[in-house]
Amino acid sequence: MAIASEPGSQAINARQAYYERIASDHMTPLWEVLGALVPKQPNSPAQAALWRYATLRDKVMEAGQLITAEEAERRVLILENPGLPGQSAITQSLYAGLQLILPGEVAPAHRHTQSALRLVMDGAGAYTAVDGERTTMHRGDFIITPSWTFHDHGNLGDEPVVWLDGLDIPTVRFYDAGFAEHGQNAVQKTSRTEGDALARYGNNMVPVDFYQSPAEPTRVFVYPFSRTQESLDKIVHSEPDPHLGHKLRFVNPATGASPMPTIGAFAQRLPAGFETRPYQSTDGTVYVCLEGEATVSVGQQEWQLQRDDVFVVPSWQVLKFHAQRDTTLFSYSDRPALQALGLWREARL
Ligand code: 1HN
């Protein structure tokens, strides 16, 4: 094979002048960017990053003194990836934020094409309503508001309630498919009693004539932490996966697919003393440490995890855990979207 000769300075200057001439016609040479466009492996501009819960809580409580939930519409601090400044993104495809609702407050009803999930972190007495049904939020509950469902939040208790929001905002922005509208009333009227959807669709049965295609979101909009814990507590007595420990994915029970088509969610238990083998996957993933104590390493970074800390693992970065105590992790990622597009890969090292 002939070795390409290096261009002389005259050739370089001629090429540069040519690039400038074609730029005014909105054209640019592929050969200058081909390597970056088609990398040998993912090389995300997103960075591994950790947010300490103590800091998150302090800062969002400060916002509680500066603006009401009603005025803000949603009183949220965005967790912005340090490698993606100004993009309201924690990975290239996903958003994360910490939301606070104070006693007596209402976050008014609206709907949008962006899909959302909540992971309840702190406090009691708040509810989320989704398309006519309320659910009381408990710590560790995983709650969804699928695309185009009306949702509002309220705090009927006497303490601040804080949760993590996960949305597919960058994905919907990428596809230029964002629509939104306000509800008729700030607090939507309820049409079903609390627990109706879980009883109807989330208890090993569905209404007799109910069928869904895999891309349709589940009617189950709350996955109570008590149920998640029950499953993890039972399965820890079996052999853990060497790379993942005991990891379960949340599903639409009617189809077996992800609860929502653009965001997948997972619950994971690492037994005390367990060390995972190195693992990488193309779904950039946001984690919450719900219980326990563990060291996590992501690429060159290493952190000692404390309760409620949030961290992000960008696509293809090598992930390892070492649990000092029984540790429970919640996580969400764009895995179902990548799988639908044939782009999901993992490597077990
Ligand atoms: C939203 O609707 C909520 O409903 C939270 O609580 C965060 C971020 C961007 C767009 C819509 C909510 C959001 C959001």
Topology overview:
Layout: H1 9-23, H2 34-37, E1 49-51, H3 53-66, H4 69-72, E2 76-78, E3 95-101, E4 106-112, E5 116-122, E6 126-130, E7 133-136, E8 142-145, E9 151-155, E10 161-167, H5 169-174, E11 180-182, H6 196-201, E12 222-223, H7 225-235, E13 246-249, E14 264-270, E15 279-281, E16 285-291, E17 294-298, E18 301-305, E19 310-313, E20 319-323, E21 327-333, H8 335-340, E22 346-348
Antiparallel strand pairs: 1-19, 2-3, 3-10, 4-9, 4-11, 5-8, 5-10, 6-7, 6-9, 8-12, 13-14, 14-21, 15-22, 16-19, 16-21, 17-18, 17-20
Bound molecules: 1-hydroxynaphthalene-2-carboxylic acid.
CATH class division = Mainly Beta
Average per-residue pLDDT, rounded, comes to 97
What are the bound molecules?
1-hydroxynaphthalene-2-carboxylic acid
Supply the number of helical segments: 8
What helical percentage do the residues reach?
10-25%
Low-pLDDT segments, ≥5 res: none
In the residues, how many domains can be counted?
A: 1
Span of the ends, CA to CA: 34 Å
Q: Which structural class should the secondary elements be placed in?
A: alpha+beta
Q: What's the CATH topology label?
A: Jelly Rolls
Radius of gyration: 23 Å
Described by strand count, sense and barrel closure, the largest sheet is: 6 strands, antiparallel
> Which architecture does the CATH hierarchy give at level 2?
Sandwich
CATH superfamily (homologous) name: Jelly Rolls
Order of helices and strands: HHEHHEEEEEEEEEHEHEHEEEEEEEEEHE
Strand sequence of the main sheet, in spatial order? 1-19-16-21-14-13
What would the principal axes of the Cα set say about the shape?
globular
β content, as a range?
Answer: 25-35%
